[in-house]
Amino acid sequence: MFFDPFLVAFSFGVGILGAMFGGIQTFICTGFAGIVVYALKAAGVEPTLLGDSVLNTLLLPAIIFNGSAVATAVAARKYPQIQGWDITRSLIFTHDPLIMLVGGAAGAAGYLLFSLLSYIGLPTDAGAVAIVVFGIVTRLTLSTGRTWNPDATDYYRKEGVRYWVFQTINCLAVAGVFAFILHEAGPDFYGVGFSISALLLIFGYASDGQKVPTTHQITAVVGTALGLTGGNILIAVLFGCISNVIYLLTAKYFNEDCSTHIDGPAVGIAITTLLLNLIF
Asked: In this structure, are residues 72 and 55 in contact, taking their beta carbons and an 8 Å threshold?
């Protein structure tokens, strides 16, 4: 059997936590837990319990993040002050048991889909695909407003070439620095870049709400590319930047100011990881 019945029930509870605390908040916790796991590995300690029970179950985005995203979409249909695409808010203020139960159901379903994709050996990131699938299904079934953002084209036209030069410089810096660091750290630590990027989002809630860039769509792919190519830094940087372009376009056209959440970083990771597996 490709799933554990106990973990289905456990994931139901985890999905409720996602609705309670919010998608970004739980993702930041995922980053923190990942860094702790890699720090213990560097110290020569094998964090079996922490890695299996906490990082790969409790804080697995396919479970807890999906719980938040789907619950937020349902909450947006009932409460005008909630935007369905904005997964930065805790839904605990609603005092609505249905919202919590929806989060739980989405968490359990997210676990089942992730387990199925892992079981069949899909040649890409199963967690990212699970998040993308739930985002699309949620958009098709729970949308009460815009399914895509037609203003994105005007935005890119107004920004012009300067915008893409700016994004390219930033992406090359992130991808290049992390590719070199991860290459030197070795294959056992290729995933730590993703954890660092996730944790850095915490600064989006500091300094009066100053935003910080989303970079895990770059660092996750850089680590994967290094693993699949035997440590080729140039290929890792190239595919990290491809993932970033996919993220930018997805976020602007299909997430921002839309009716539900479709996760741009997950789309970038899923597509680019698939390409890497098919090529290498």
From this structure: no
What is the signed CA dihedral for 280, 111, 128, 232, rounded to 10 degrees? -40
Domain limits, the chain: 5-279
pLDDT (tens digit, 9 = 90+) per residue, 143-171? 888 899 999 999 999 999 999 999 999 99
- Which is nearest to 217 in space by CA: 153, 273, 166? 273
Q: Which residues contact 249 (CB under 8 A, 6 or more apart)?
A: 264
Residues in the chain: 280
Q: What are phi and psi of 105, to 5 degrees?
A: -65, -40
3-class state of residue 102 by DSSP:
helix
Which residues have CB under 8 Å from 1's CB, separation 6+? none
Give me Rg for the CA atoms of the chain: 18
A 10 A CB-CB count for 54 gives 18
End-to-end CA, the chain:
30
